[in-house]
Amino acid sequence: MSPDIEAKITFLVSDGKGNGRHKPARSGYRPAHLVRDDYLTTGTHQYYGDVIAQPGETVLGTIAFITPEVYPRTLWIGKIIRIQEGSRIVGHAEVTQIFNEILKKSD
């Protein structure tokens, strides 16, 4: 699966109230992403250098979304996408590059 975007991915440390992560994430991690205010979609992460992303860290990597044709023109450089596991917020991704043209928001 080809990546749709490159992003700076930040994982939150568990806050004891259900948000954040206790465990590190590795390439292949598949959380949900809030790409629009009304649309969550799954995406597969690949971290450059195959690093292990610890809670509280920011890593650079790519995300390949499922069915991007369902939410065209929703992303731009600098957009922050919330990362979730179910309803639990575990981090965010700041878009740094868009590889899939269908996702680029029109000016």
How is this structure best described in words?
- There is one protein chain.
- With 107 residues, this protein is mainly beta.
- Helix content is 0%, strand content 43%.
- The chain has one domain (5-103): Elongation Factor Tu (Ef-tu), domain 3 (Beta Barrel), CATH 2.40.30.
- The protein has strands at 5-11, 32-36, 39-47, 58-65, 80-85, 88-98.
- A 6-stranded antiparallel barrel has the order 1-4-3-2-5-6.
- Strand 5 (80-85) and strand 6 form a beta hairpin.
- It comes from Paenibacillus lignilyticus.
How do the strands line up in the largest sheet?
A: 1-4-3-2-5-6
**How many individual domains?**
1
CATH topology: Elongation Factor Tu (Ef-tu), domain 3
Mean pLDDT: 95
Proportion in β-strands: 35-45%
The best one-word shape is globular
Helix content: under 10%
CA distance, first residue to last residue: 28 Å
Structural class: mainly beta
Run of helices and strands: EEEEEE
Write the CATH homologous superfamily. Answer: Translation factors
What is the name of the CATH architecture? Beta Barrel
Main beta sheet, described? 6 strands, antiparallel, barrel
- Uncertain stretches: none
Organism: Paenibacillus lignilyticus
Keywords: GTP-binding, Nucleotide-binding
InterPro entries: Transl_elong_EF1A/Init_IF2_C
Protein name: Elongation factor Tu
Question: Which features characterize this protein?
Answer:
107 residues, mainly beta, Elongation Factor Tu (Ef-tu), domain 3, six-stranded antiparallel barrel
